[in-house]
Amino acid sequence: MASTHLDAAFARAFGAPATGAVQVARAPGRVNLIGEHIDYCGLPVLPMALRQGVRIAFHPRSDRETRLVNRDPRFAPSAFAVNASIPPAAAGDWGNYARAAAQALAQRFRNLRGVDALVDSDLPIAAGLSSSSALVVAMALALMHANQVTVAPLELMEFLGRGERYVGTAGGGMDQAIILGARAGCASRIDFHPLRLTPTAVPPDWQFIVAWSLVHAEKSGAARQSYNERTRQCDEARRLVATRLGQREDINYPALLAATPVEQLLEVAGATGSDVLARRFRHVVTEGIRVRQAEAAMAAHDLAAFGLLLDASHQSLRGDYEVSRPELDRLVELAREAGAAGARLTGAGFGGSIVALCRAERAPEVIAALRERFYAPRGAAGDVERYVFRAEPSAGAEVLTPGASSA
Ligand code: NG1
User: Fold this and answer.
1) Contact 354, 335 (CB under 8 A)
2) Which of 58, 131, 274, 398 could form a disulfide with 117 if both were Cys (CB 3.0 to 4.6 A apart)?
3) In angstroms, rounded to a whole number, what is the distance separating the alpha carbons of residues 6 and 341?
4) 103 lines ligand 1 (CB under 6 A)
5) Among 167, 181, 39, 22, which Cα is nearest to 104's?
6) Average pLDDT, integer, range 265-277
7) Is the CB of 171 under 6 A from ligand 1?
């Protein structure tokens, strides 16, 4: 939406500000290409930012109050005072993502003033495309801008990653890092120890397609428990394997992988007596290897190799990690049958979306096949443009210059 329209909508929600212009903070969603459920193990991942995202039209207030209005009427207005300990709204309330950003900043800076904020988004919600972290990041940028404070990019990525845990998810740091640090035209490998982003250009004749499974992956509900359970299982598996290998109990995954050949790690994990932990561990270790291979395949423009890695990642997430759903499996299968080089679920799973890779000229066939064979039988063909789209590797979050139009 052009920012002049946002200005007008802002004036309707809060009244026209007496002084100063309304400004706009924009934060993109992201699609993770590969490296799923391993950021919280400290292993590298390979996401890219999307064109779609969250926009916040904001104006500073003279007090600590922050008032939020969402242009989507499903989300009720919300208000809170910005300070270092902000009581959360009910679990699942969208306003908690804004509170997460405000509390994290207030713990870093004293006496922050609040903002009036009108939130708008063209990202599908609970679709595995990080609409929640986009809101956290856009809100943080709005508050920082309103208070004229700055934080170095890597530090901001790290503390917003921790800050989002306010909502109760023990998430990794992938989303905040790519949303802030993405480069247009590129995917980025994110390393976590220490945090670092390394862009690789997406070949111009490659097309990533995102398709929503029609199943919401609500991270405030049962999916949150399942997600947090996976993080605990990975930690438990790491501890068991490290102990059996005579390593320090607190050794992290990157160090464990660097110290021991993969075959030996998998053998030791298989002998721990817990089939579930062994399978979770196998996913983490093999997915870590696939990220390195995928980055190399992208740099070499080897579409077939990248596609096979996507397929292998999906198999692992479905079998070993148990985060897929029949709808996601079906989308992956249909995309492959329609000529995609590979496909897999993206994001946390339990619903949400898939990402498929094909040559750019094949994209219309893949999208048409998904419309006819997945969405039409489910009565959703009319809205297919909202559910399936070409992912354009886009730039990270920013505060837009006033008056700049951004369609
Ligand atoms: P989504 O897809 O937004 O639910 C979550 C985590 C990521 C990562 C992925 C799985 C948050 C904010 N995001 O993403 O850190 O662990 O799952 O790879 O918790």
Assistant:
1) yes
2) 58
3) 40
4) no
5) 167
6) 96
7) yes
Beta bridge partners of 24: 57, 400
Region class of 381: left (phi > 0), else alpha (psi between -120 and 50), else beta? alpha
Answer whether 328's CB lies under 8 Å from 345's CB: yes
Catalytic residue from among 7, 175, 250, 329: 175
- 11 C-alpha vs ligand 1 centroid, how far in Å? 34
Distance CA 126, CA 119 (A): 16
Strands (E) across 157-286 are located at: 186-192, 195-201, 206-212
Residue 403, pLDDT score: 58
175 assigned to active site = yes
Confidence label for 2 from pLDDT (cuts 50, 70 and 90)? low
For residue 172, how far is its CA from the centre of ligand 1 (angstroms)? 7
DSSP class of 203: P
Whether the per-residue pLDDT at 220 is higher than 80: the answer is no
37 lines ligand 1 (CB under 6 A): yes
Which residue from 34, 36, 39 has its CB within 8 A of the most atoms of ligand 1, so it is best to mutate? 39
In short, whether 163's Cβ falls inside 6 Å of ligand 1 is no
Hey, what's the torsion of the CAs at 254, 260, 262, 265, to 10 degrees? -100
The answer to whether 135 and 98 have CB atoms below 8 angstroms apart is: yes
Tokens of 316: 């692992």
The C-alpha angle with vertex 378 and arms to 373 and 384, in degrees rounded to 5, equals 70
